[in-house]
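Quick board copy: two proteins, each given as sequence then tokens.
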Amino acid sequence: MIRDVGGSYRKAIVETVHHYSGQRPSPESIDALKAEGCWNNDWEASLELLRRQGQQDLPAFEALVEVFNGFYFGGDPEGDPAAWTGFIRNEPLLVDAALFSALSAADVAWGFVSGAEPPSARFVLQTRLGLEQPPLIAMGEAPDKPDPSGFLRLANALAPPSVPVAYLGDTVADVTTVVRARQAKPDQRFISLAVAPPHLHSTPRRAAYEGQLRQAGADVVIPGTTAVLAALEQAIA
């Protein structure tokens, strides 16, 4: 979790659903959907919320994607990021490049398995954080989480089977990805680190959400992404 998407991806879900139905789903309904662990793709989540609202004429998936990206990017996703005017401009970073320097200094190899579109992920990692060619598997480059294929591919690229591999995420799907990786590759140790998303940190719902992460199989729930190195050292001690 390296950026707060409460005002971007989640807002794009809300506005996409409103575009087609005239109703805006509540944050609680989105959290509940995400807690089911199979709606990591926000396009599919938007369509499912429309379905659950009782929408009779569901939009074509490709049309919904175009509407969603209009809200999120506000311009051509493959175009110049400087021209984007959408919600992507409203993503506070939760970390800085120093975190990855600290991980490297501790001999921790790192990379990203993201459910975001490649242009969005690259914009955050390379343009905003200044990371040079970070190892990245983004949407469309592997099956959506909780399928562990992308995570396992990155793990194989970063570490031999004798080295533990941890994954930090903020959804049940992220945790389930690690659980399924263990099933697929039982000879390697996989650790699930989890964190509640920022929009829950000052709400009473945070404790329940963190409980859902633990119930899904998270080994450690940390207070924020910047605590990942300390949590990793403790988990593998």
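And the next:
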Amino acid sequence: MIESMLLEYIQTALARAKYDIIEDDEEPYYGEISELEGVWATGTSLEECRKNLEEIIGEWLILRLRRNLPIPPLGNFKNCDHR
């Protein structure tokens, strides 16, 4: 059940991602989720950037859970205080 909740949170976060193209960069695709502080990724293509962003969100969630830090509410996740 927890795994499915994490996957749903990641998908909700990805739906909120904003992407830009950075000219003259080795990995020109840049994506971030403004509601999740410090969550951003780059890639050589939009698909690679999205995949990298998905991995970063998962790692970010695990770190927040391990450190007992709050997880910002997104979509149906209104109360994410797991402490």
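Board note added afterward: The CA atoms of residues 27 and 44 lie 4 Å apart.
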